[in-house]
Write a structure and sequence with these properties.
alpha/beta
């Protein structure tokens, strides 16, 4: 089977509240899937069902060919959103212990742990107690613990939370390397930029329902392009340009007025620019901006913010 993970019609109810509603998607082997949505969208509930921690109210889940992830747990790596490590252990001992729970012999696990710690710039911290490490360093240790047994399926729940920009880029490199080695990576996030850079495939979730399932490029196709103008311009003059939709106005740090006008599907944008210059508008800068994944999410969810 090409899918490492498959959900069909999965629903989870807690009393009268439906956390996940009729969710279906699949994650292909050796690919990176972004499971995206704002906080409270149902991502973590879905992951808990995938891992067999809670049972779905309805639907079917297949994990690495098994109907219950608990039967193939040694082939799965999981980084939970709620971080937790034995703070008085060293990274080397913690990783060795957790890898041993997944069936890796102690000597082999220590060898892998040291190599992974070195690769993450933590070689000198390998024998220092975790309580003395920074938050970012401890999070790297927990990530290594989740992958030291070389799992086929890696599930990361909000892995970028709490990391500074440098460590976020480091984590992105780890995710790419996992996929390059043949692992399937599923990571949940509410920050679209990470998914935009990493994912082969994205599933967008809002209020427990799937609103999109496809590639990043396909998602972007649901959002309009935008015309950005800067200068001493009247808002009404921008709104009157041909093919222009809703206009938003902001003032930059330099005190320049910036207008962002949505371009409806099919609108070229060049006509609006020509009309602006023909009308003698004082335009100091202009740009035709392609939609981002965040723009697509806002469009697909009817304005619900992913941030």
């Amino acid at each position: 089977m090409d899918a490492a993970l498959q959900l069909e019609g999965v629903t989870k109810r807690y009393g009268a509240f439906t956390a996940v509603d009729d969710l279906s998607f699949s994650a292909r082997r050796g690919k990176i899937l972004g499971f995206l949505g704002p906080n409270g969208a149902g991502k973590t509930s879905s992951i808990r069902m995938v891992l067999g921690l809670v049972a779905p109210t309805a639907g079917r889940i297949d994990v690495l060919g098994a109907p219950d992830a608990r039967s193939v747990r040694e082939r799965i790596g999981f980084l939970p959103e709620e971080r937790g490590l034995y703070r008085r252990m060293t990274p080397l001992d913690a990783i060795t212990f957790l890898g041993g729970l997944k069936g890796v012999p102690r000597a082999e696990c220590r060898k892998r742990a040291l190599a992974l710690l070195e690769a993450q710039g933590l070689g000198e911290a390998a024998r220092r107690q975790i309580r003395h490490l920074s938050k970012g360093m401890a999070q790297k240790v927990q990530l290594i613990s989740a992958i030291v047994h070389e799992p086929e399926l890696v599930i990361l729940d909000e892995p970028f939370s709490g990391l500074d920009p440098v460590n976020q880029l480091t984590l992105e490199a780890v995710i790419r390397d996992l996929a390059a080695r043949g692992a399937t990576v599923v990571f949940s996030t509410h920050v679209m930029q990470h998914a935009e850079r990493l994912c082969d495939h994205v599933v967008l979730l809002a209020r427990g329902k799937k609103v999109f399932d496809g590639t990043v490029a396909q998602a972007r196709g649901h959002a309009p392009r935008a015309l950005v103008l800067e200068g001493a311009i009247d808002e009404a003059a921008v709104a009157a340009l041909p093919g222009v939709g809703h206009v938003t106005v902001e003032t930059t740090e330099d005190g320049v007025r910036r207008f962002t006008a949505a371009l409806p599907k099919g609108a070229a944008g060049q006509d609006a620019l020509k009309a602006a210059f023909a009308a003698g508008l004082d335009v100091s800068r202009f740009e035709l901006r392609e939609p981002t994944l965040h723009d697509a999410f806002i469009t697909l969810t009817g304005g619900e913010s992913a941030l």
